[in-house]
């Protein structure tokens, strides 16, 4: 193992949203030097990238990198096509159309490549399997499988230099617990954006799955969400 956690580099997947900002704060609190990575993949809510670029270092990143690709060429999601973003709340047991095919696999693959270059063995991702939209690539079994893959698919892993760890500090937390943890760590949630279908002015719609989960979390945490919304449902 190279060094201690107090000196170790880590790659943090950071979208500019609530969960990834909290994950970044946790990585810092655990003593890692976080190198953040965002993705410009053709998402309709591209405003999240502006938040990520503007606030990454303010929230504790050593450096911030944006990887560009165009998943609109593949489509299959309301976030990367002309499909309408659902506004009626999630349908139980159905993976919503806001799921982007293989997104976390793609993102983690880039993060793994970055980690290899840095000589890092720690990757943080803010997936959650409690208050979430049912995406298959947010589940603990998926993360465990990718962690195993990382050891098989990399030079450092094969040579036994160290073991890659995919940190998912939020995976078994409710949204309210995530928010409380972030507030305790000093996260300023004004510097985050979560909406899947924001207005041109950047206001959150208040009705998409992401907005609903965020508003529910703040309500249950007994805190006020500081970002502007077009509509806030009770």
Q: Key terms for this structure?
A:
single chain; 234 residues; alpha/beta; Rossmann fold; 5-stranded parallel beta sheet; 7 helices; 5 strands; 33% helix; disordered N terminus
CATH homologous superfamily classification: HUPs
What is the correct CATH architecture?
3-Layer(aba) Sandwich
Give the overall shape, derived from the CA principal axes: globular
Structural class: alpha/beta
**Helix proportion:** 25-40%
What's the CATH first level?
Alpha Beta
Number of strands: 5
User: What Rg, in angstroms, do the CA atoms define?
Assistant: 17 Å
Which strands sit side by side, in order, in the main sheet? 3-2-1-4-5
Count of individual domains: 1
What is the CATH topology classification name?
Rossmann fold
Question: What's the end-to-end separation, in Å?
Answer: 50 Å
Distinct helical segment count? 7
- What is the string of SSEs from the N terminus onward? EHEHEHEHHEHH
How much of the sequence lies in strands comes to: 5-15%
Task: Determine the mean pLDDT.
Answer: 92
Task: Give the low-confidence spans.
Answer: 1-6
Sheet of most strands: 5 strands, parallel
What would you say this structure looks like, in words?
The N terminus is likely disordered. The longest helix is centred in the middle third of the chain and has 16 residues. Helices cover 33% and strands 11% of the residues. It has a five-stranded parallel sheet, with helices on both faces. β1, α1 and β2 form a beta-alpha-beta unit. It has one domain: HUPs (Rossmann fold), CATH 3.40.50. It contains seven helices and five strands. It is globular. By secondary structure, it is an alpha/beta fold. The protein starts with 8 loop residues before the first strand and ends in a 13-residue tail after the last helix.
